[in-house]
Design goal:
heterodimer, A: alpha/beta, Rossmann fold, six-stranded mixed sheet, four-stranded antiparallel sheet, 12 strands, B: alpha/beta, eleven-stranded mixed sheet, ten-stranded mixed sheet, 10 helices, 34% strand, globular, binds adenosine-5'-triphosphate, binds magnesium ion
Chain lengths: 267, 480
């Protein structure tokens, strides 16, 4: 839902980042207000996951330019765990397995960390179990998954559901969901999308990274951005996704070539 | 520094128990000779059999050579530079705690082991050993009611000489190995536990070893006997002050278990490990062995090894009785320049004997951590079974982990299973936890304690949480 007067939650300005010596983000700008759903699309390797990890504070990426403000605060100055406590959530494209760490325990510690960030009291084990049972229904997940180690041996789709379960527990203000739809069967896609819709509200915002229109059929984006070679090349409404679906990315490439030529023409 | 610091930046936090108690100590002169052995025995007013035992061991020690097969490196130990007897000056062991030097009580208070009537742990009897001697044992009367003897080995030599003579040196002979021989010659104190036939020890027993003097070796000797059908759970804890020299600790523990009896022996070892450059710390050369003498007897070793500059330790089980069971659960954590070579020996002698080995090695910093284990199945051990699992976790990229499993079987029908794995805490795993609001250090600690869970589950409840905290403390870094 677009409301021009809604508060800005995330303000990304000309963000540049590299991994080791390789520049990957080359100037990303994006403004996200409360209540909005943004979709980011783009070819493999265009930098979508990199953007999400830079936002969450992954240590492998070095920011070389630009700024990110989260509710007016300099996001890049915060530790990853502080970002999470303040309500930034990243649903990973490839959630890692953490053998030996109980999923239930992990979810409880994470939930309490987020609660402390909201100035709320920590939940004891019993109160937490009640909460998690309730939130499990959002993703229709079997409680048996709580007993296992974090993501260990989970199927691809189960891992994605576990991500959405975390989102449901952490109650984020800005959720960045990196290809949460890939690897999901048709029913799971419906359930996960239903969960995202259920959690989306006027006070929070969602940034969906996806390759597929089928997700955007269920979660209607307010904005669609196309990323290419570390930049947002084009921004439009939901019809932009449909156009991509029809025409592929070739025309984006043509446009990219044009912008790269542009400075030379000026000279 | 921000969390962009890698895992390798974890630095152990300052050692908490490094203080020195200022107390007048009676020490004998440095160095080792037959006269020193006689002097120790005389100071303790020992019976002839014990002096003989010491002298035989000493003479054999002189013929032996320090073992060099472990993956350990250290400058040569000068055995003439060590003091072999040090005791806080107080005449006799006191009948009542009120008479014990308050400084000593205070020391144990500071270590979290209150001894006084009002403050002592409610379900754990404690024998407190300070340098070479036992200074107090709590709950003795209560234990005596059920026939359990729990006292220092020096007292046992006086009051229960027959039992000591019957069992001492029968599991670890005086000439077993270099360090055991040294211990047999000069041991000063330690704990003695005797659980008579049919008695389940009504409380947890615990000995707490404190090294205080800088130039003293610590050579304690522990003997635990569980008669037919008896059972006991025993825990050993240890700390030492921070000195920039190395102290030698060469202990011997012997367990004897008769028919249907069981001993559960747990260790939480937190000697001083030396500083981050490897200066100082305890050299820990320990021989621990239990003998399942009776049928259906049971020995379980659980150890959490976090301290020591050097750990050389292989708590073992000789499974002699039919259907006897041996278990070894171990967490060994090394950081900075620490070196650990630890594991177990399971010697299957009797039919249908079973053993389980679960070893978790965690290496951080520039440390080196080796598991060395022997599973031996003798010709009479029909139907013997062993399961071993050895997992290593590496933190950072400068640490080393090795596994040396030795299997010798003379019994075609035995079943031996060995599993091993190595993992590294990855930056992506830590980032995943951090991205859920969990701080870097807590994330490391969650992963480490997850890795150790199978072993921690074996610890007596009172100590499992302690062990968890201890590991976290050892790994806690100045990451911020
Ligand atoms: N840690 C890294 N080390 C080296 N290269 C990296 C690293 N992370 C990302 N890259 C490179 O950066 C580029 C962008 O990767 P990114 O994962 O952001 O793409 P993406 O848009 O998410 O692609 P996909 O649609 O396949 O998920 C790729 O060329 C990738 O190989
Ligand atoms: Mg991606």
């Amino acid at each position: 839902m677009i409301r021009p007067d809604a508060p800005v939650l995330l303000e990304i300005r000309d963000l540049q980042a590299r991994v080791e010596d390789q520049p990957i983000l080359k100037g990303v700008s994006l403004t996200i207000r409360a209540g909005e759903i943004h979709a980011v699309m783009g070819r493999n390797g265009s930098g979508k996951s990199t953007l999400s990890k830079v936002l969450a504070g992954h240590p492998a990426y070095t920011v070389t330019g630009g700024s990110v403000h989260y509710r007016g605060e300099d996001l890049l100055a915060l530790e990853p765990e502080q970002r999470a406590r303040l309500g930034l959530f990243l649903g990973f494209q490839y959630p890692v397995e953490i053998p030996g760490v109980s999923n239930l325990e992990f979810l409880r510690v994470a939930t309490n960390a987020r609660r402390s960030g909201k100035g709320e009291e920590e939940l004891d084990t019993f109160a937490f179990e009640d909460l998690v049972k309730e939130r499990l229904q959002v993703v229709q997940m079997d409680p048996a998954f709580l007993e296992r180690s974090v993501n260990e041996g989970f199927s691809g789709g189960e891992k994605k559901r576990n991500e959405i379960l975390q989102m449901a527990l952490l109650d984020p203000l800005v959720a960045v969901l990196d290809e949460t739809d890939s690897g999901l069967d048709i029913d799971a896609l419906r359930i996960v999308a239903g969960g995202v819709n259920h959690l989306a509200g006027p006070d929070n915002a969602t940034l969906l990274i996806t390759h597929y229109q089928r997700l955007l059929d269920v979660i209607t984006p307010d904005y669609v951005h196309v990323m290419a070679a570390g930049r947002i090349l084009r921004t439009g409404g939901k019809e932009l996704a449909l156009e991509l679906e029809e025409r592929g990315y070739d025309w984006v490439d043509a446009e990219l070539a044009a912008t790269e030529r542009a400075p030379a023409e000026v000279v | 520094m921000t969390s962009t610091a890698t895992v390798g930046d974890l630095v152990s936090q300052p050692y908490k128990y490094g203080f020195i108690t200022d107390i007048e100590t009676e020490k004998i002169a440095k160095g080792l000779s037959e006269d020193v052995v006689r002097l120790i025995s005389a100071k303790k007013k020992e019976p002839a059999f014990l002096l003989d035992f010491r002298l035989r061991a000493y003479r054999q020690w002189l013929q032996m050579e320090e073992p060099d097969w472990a993956s350990l490196g250290h400058p040569p130990i000068d055995y003439q530079e060590i003091i072999y007897y040090a005791a806080p000056k107080q005449q006799e062991k006191k009948a009542s705690l009120d008479e014990v030097d308050p400084k000593l009580l205070e020391t144990f208070d500071k270590l979290g082991i209150p001894l006084s009537e009002q403050k002592r742990l409610s379900n754990v009897a404690v024998d407190a050993v300070f340098d070479s001697v036992s200074i107090a044992t709590t709950y003795r009367e209560k234990l005596a009611e059920s026939g359990v003897i729990f006292c220092s080995i020096s007292e046992a030599v006086k009051d229960h000489a027959d039992l000591v003579e019957k069992y001492l040196g029968t599991v670890v002979p005086g000439n077993d190995n270099y360090f055991a021989a040294l211990n047999s010659a000069v041991f000063s104190d330690g704990s003695f536990v005797f659980i008579p036939k049919g008695v389940a020890c009504p409380m947890e027993l615990s000995t707490y070893f404190r090294i205080n003097s800088g130039d003293t070796g610590q050579f304690e000797r522990t003997l635990i006997v569980a008669e037919e059908g008896a059972s006991v759970s025993y825990l050993e804890g240890c700390t030492a002050p921070m000195f920039d020299t190395n102290q030698l600790h060469a202990a011997v523990v012997e367990l004897v278990v008769l028919d249907d009896a069981s001993i559960k022996y747990s260790t939480v070892q937190n000697w001083y490990a030396g500083d981050e450059n490897g200066k100082g710390g305890i050299y820990n050369f320990v021989t621990k062995r239990g003998q399942c003498r009776g049928d259906r007897s049971h020995i379980s070793w659980t150890q959490v090894e976090t301290g020591s500059a050097i750990t050389w330790k292989y708590p073992s089980c000789v499974l002699q009785g039919a259907d006897s069971v041996g278990e070894f659960y171990s967490v060994a954590l090394t950081n900075n320049r620490q070196q650990a070579d630890t594991g177990t020996k399971m010697i299957h002698v009797g039919p249908r004997t079973r053993s389980t080995i679960v070893s978790k090695g965690i290496s951080a910093g520039h440390s080196s951590n080796s598991y060395r284990g022997l599973v031996q199945i003798g010709p009479k051990a029909v139907g013997a079974r062993n399961y071993s699992q050895c997992d290593s976790m590496l933190i950072g990229d400068q640490a080393a982990a090795n596994t040396y499993p030795y299997i010798r079987s003379q019994q075609p029908d035995a079943s031996i299973e060995h599993e091993a794995s190595t993992c590294r805490i990855s930056a992506d795993q830590l980032f995943y936890l951090q991205s859920r609001g969990i701080a870097f250090e807590e994330a490391v600690s969650m992963m480490v304690s997850g890795f150790c869970r199978d072993v921690f589950n074996q610890l007596p409840m009172e100590f499992a949480a302690e062990a968890d905290k201890l590991l976290a403390l050892k790994l806690e870094g100045s990451v911020g």
